[in-house]
Amino acid sequence: MAAKEGMLVDQLAKVAQGDRAAFAGLYQQTSRAVYGQCMQLLRDNDEANDVLQETYIQVWHHAGEYHADRGSVLTWMMSICRYRGLDALRRRRTDVAFDTVAQNHACEKPGPMQNAGDMVDRQRLSDCLRDLDERYRNSIEMAYFRGFTHQELAVAMGQPLGTTKSWVRRGLNVLRQCLGS
Amino acid sequence: MKPDNPERNHALAAEYVLGTLHGAARKRFERWMMLSPKLRRQVWLWERRLQPFNESAPSMQPPADAWDALERRLFSAPETAAEPRAAAWWQSALPWRWTTGIAVAGLMALLIWTPVPPKAPESGLVGVVQGTQAQPLWVLNASRGDHSLTLRSLPPTLPASDDQDYELWLLPESGVPISLSVLPTEGAELRITLSHEQVKQLLQSRSLAISLEPHGGSPTGQPTGPVVYQTQLVDL
Questions:
Q1: Is the pTM of this model over 0.90?
Q2: What is the ipTM of this complex?
């Protein structure tokens, strides 16, 4: 799987030099994972399609800015996708389907792009989340998977705004201690 | 004011990645990130920490048109990645002037040159006429061997109104269009035998166009209606 990451890095390096064939190859290798994430966050085909394209447009223009501190190539791309997805959510959001928030827990099925190192990271996050206060964990997962703002979390969880803000903050703090650097 | 308290940096970076930092606060934080390498590293660290969340999303096949749309947004016209050199002839294709209708053509149809199939059954030229939704409407094959031009209509057949027909034109380098045929509204395939002179001109210009004409074809022998499609043949 390290070979696969090496291949993605090679492709990205070529993309940074304007190689369109490498860009097509990168899209082929990664678009299923990226689109899956777009759909998870946006739950709307058209918007997910648009964010997918915006993500790859950004990848095309900024390929040269990738470096290993950003994580794997896919981590970097997923981050771009998530930020574009959050922008799209904020633009459109007037009403939130709060009835489905209970389904937001991370599913246990491993994704296809996962490698051994990712498995370790995933296990660590999973262990840390398990030890987290349930209220903290729920707020973090809802914010991550649904892109909820503090205000939306407050409505979804039936709590005052200050309370959910503090759950998120404390939860992240405990998570940081647990995950370390 | 920049956040210079390490604990506050951690908290803001985490909420930035989580997405709960939003609106003006998010914009402000993005500006701080531009100024502070330390803050950027905090953000990257949180991106890596929370990456396992991303992997829990099931992979999904993007819509089939996503790649074409992406290429259009990035490069104006799609290119087959496996054929990067195709850009050269596409970009160098001389714009063909046909004052009436070229604007309409731009609006109505997006013409995309076909990728060259890797294994060609015979020597010849090929082109595809595509509609605005990038759906193939006609496939054109020109055979060097028997001077024939075959035009295959792909379903659904293009709707021309009752009192109008599509007419196929050869666009020689001289610039004066030569009528080849009125396109039948029924039947999947049209085969035209070209004269020596037409073959010579087609091999030089490789350009064909389709205009919308009164029923039965142009009354003047020259296009009178808008050019709705234009295509360029490429070597098989």
A1: no
A2: 0.84
